[in-house]
Amino acid sequence: MPLHAPLDALTFDLDDTLWDNRPVMEHAETGHYAWLDEALAAWHGTHLDQNGRYGERFPLSAYQARRLELAKRHPLRRGDFTWIRERSLSELLEEYGLPRSAARMWAAAAIDRFLELRHHLTPYPEVETLLDELRSRYRLAAITNGNADLTRLPLAAHFPVTIAAGEMLAPKPDARPFLAALARLGSTPSRALHVGDSWREDVLPAWRLGMRVAWIDVHDDSERALPAGVYRLRHVRELPNLLQRLDSTLRD
Ligand SMILES: [Mg+2]
């Protein structure tokens, strides 16, 4: 595997690579479910007695359990988290007593709310400048399993190519989203480096394809031995140094 070709393309994971995703998801998770409960209570008004309060009959834990169960029932959809959420809500709302059409409408409305909250995120402060500099030297793509829609974020301007791998029904670690990104960038694995935090979904598939990998080791998993071509970073802000190092090795 040639590790010495000059790099011309960089592919980026998003969640936990360009921003801290845990608080974003916690806020979106509780926020849209509470919104649904309140909106239903307001809508039902005096009829509330009949069915009881939705959030009391189906607490957040019931929704989370249903998502796990649904992902098992539909393994091909396992990476399409938005579909799993919406379908789970729809099932629970029917069990709550809503007719199917109303259940679907409320599930869709709650998902809209979730997606809105899910984009209330703040990239690490260095990211904007970093991408701005990198895109003058490399072609950039984003590859995500999550449901962050880049086009809703100002960062989109830096990425000519975005691959929503979950919605392609081929979530990482499947190799296809990587190959699709490289094909659209006009690059090849030996000339590209992937940047991501997940050992299983970012590092292994990219490395097996012959890409170089900058692993953002957010959990400080320093025991792990790194294969040739995989480089450990603590934070994406260290990427320019790594690229410079790789560049100077080539010139030696
Ligand atoms: Mg990630």
From TrEMBL:
<dbReference type="Pfam" id="PF00702">
    <property type="entry name" value="Hydrolase"/>
</dbReference>
<keyword id="KW-0378">Hydrolase</keyword>
<dbReference type="InterPro" id="IPR036412">
    <property type="entry name" value="HAD-like_sf"/>
</dbReference>
<dbReference type="InterPro" id="IPR023214">
    <property type="entry name" value="HAD_sf"/>
</dbReference>
<dbReference type="InterPro" id="IPR051400">
    <property type="entry name" value="HAD-like_hydrolase"/>
</dbReference>
<protein>
    <recommendedName>
        <fullName>Haloacid dehalogenase</fullName>
    </recommendedName>
</protein>
<dbReference type="InterPro" id="IPR006439">
    <property type="entry name" value="HAD-SF_hydro_IA"/>
</dbReference>
<dbReference type="GO" id="GO:0016787">
    <property type="term" value="F:hydrolase activity"/>
</dbReference>
<keyword id="KW-0460">Magnesium</keyword>
<dbReference type="GO" id="GO:0009231">
    <property type="term" value="P:riboflavin biosynthetic process"/>
</dbReference>
